[in-house]
Amino acid sequence: MNPAYATVDHVITVPLDHSAPNGPDIQIFAREVVDPARAGERLPWLLYLQGGPGGKSPRPSAGSPGWLAQALKTHRVLLLDQRGTGRSTPVTARAASHFGSPARLAAYLGHFRADSIVADAELIRRHLCGGEPWETLGQSYGGFITLTYLSRAPEGLRACYVTGGLPGLAGTADDVYARTYPRVRDRVLDFYARYPQDASRLRKISDLLETAEVRLPDGDQLTTRRLRTLGLVLGMGDGFERLHWLLDESVDADGELTDTFLHQLMNLTGFTDNPLFAVMQETLYGQGAGPTGWAASRALADFSEFTEEADPLLLTGEMIYPWMFREITGLRPFADAADLLAEHTGWPPLYDPHRLAANEVPLAAIVYHDDMYVDAGLSLRTAREVGATRVWVTNEWEHDGVTSSGGRVLARLMDLAAGRA
What we know:
Layout: E1 6-15, E2 25-34, E3 45-49, H1 68-71, E4 76-81, H2 93-96, H3 102-109, H4 114-129, E5 134-139, H5 141-152, E6 157-163, H6 173-194, H7 196-211, H8 224-228, H9 239-248, H10 259-269, H11 275-280, H12 295-300, H13 324-327, H14 335-343, H15 353-357, E7 363-368, H16 376-385, E8 389-394, H17 401-404, H18 408-417
Parallel strand pairs: 3-4, 3-5, 5-6, 6-7, 7-8
Antiparallel strand pairs: 1-2, 2-4
Helix pairs in contact: 3-14, 4-5, 6-7
C-alpha cells in the first residue's frame, strides 16, 4: 500500500537580518508534500502559511490537515516552519535564556515579523522553483503574511488564498483590541448560554484560587487571570466542547481541583511550544505609529465587564498581558525583552497600501462573519482596498474552517481566484 503522502524535507540557510546578508544565519525548514501517484510530475507549488504568530506548520498524516488532500489533487505543497518555529532555528525559553541581555534578545526577536518571513519565503521559492511564481494558502496570521508578501514581492505570487486572516491595513493595536474585547465577551456569553453550569464552575474555581494557593505541575501558581486565558480556545470550531469537557473534570468530590484539570490547563496556557505567539502578538500591529505599549492590557480598563469581580466571570481571548511574562514559566526568559518590544517605536510598515490597491495577483479570501480573533469589519474594509480581491463571507464555520471543512473552503477559494465561482 502506498503512503498517503510522499514527502521531502528541505533545510536552507538564510540571514537572520535580510538587510545584512553577511551577518548571523539561521536555518529554515520546510516539508514538501505531494500525492505519491504524481510525485514525478511538474506541478504548481502551494506554499502554506500557518497561523500564529509562532505556529509551526502542520505535520501531515492521513486526513490531516483537512485541506491537504484537496490541495494535492492539483499542487505540490510546501509546509513551511516559519522562522523561530518547529525545526526552523526555534525560539524557545531555553534559547532565550542564553542571550545574556534583554536588549540582545529583543534585537534578535525584532527579526521575526512578517517582513522577514516573506524574505525567507522568496529565498526558498527561488531555490525550489527558480523564477516561477507560486501560490499561497494563508490561515489566520498566514493571511497577514500574505498581505505583506503582496506588498513586498508580488512577482513571486501566482494566486493567494486567505482563510480568516485579512488584517486591517492601517489599524493600530489600540484599534484592534477595542474591537476584540466585545467579540470575546459575546463569545463567552454564548458559551455560557450553551453550558450554563460552566459559568458557576469557573466562578467556583476562581473563588477557590482566591482563598488557597494552587500550583500547576510545573510550579506556576494558578491565578484567576491565568484561568481566564482559557477563553483563547473559544474561537475554534470545537472550542466550546474542548473547554466544557475540561471543566467537566475540574473539581473532585472533595472540592479540590483535579490533577487532570491542572495538567491540561498548564499545557493549554503555558506557551511551551509557541512562546513567539505571546512575544510577537502585538508587534503585528507595530507600523510606525509609536509603541504598541501593551495595548491589550490598556484596553482592558475600558471594559468593566471584564473585571475579575464581575458576574459572570468573563474569560479573555487572544490578548497578551505583561503579567504573563512574570508568572508563566515558558515566558519568563522573555520578560524584559518583551517590555522592550512593547516600547519600540521603529517598526517599519508591513503593508504598502498603494501597491496593494494596484494589486493584480488574484486574491481569494474567506471572512468568517463571527470570527473571534480577526475582526470581520476590518477584513472587509481591507478587501475593498486591495486590487484583484474576491471575498466569501460566511458564518458556517469558525476561525478554523479551512481545516474543519475538509477541502470545501480551499476548493471554493481556488475557484474564486480562477473566476470559476
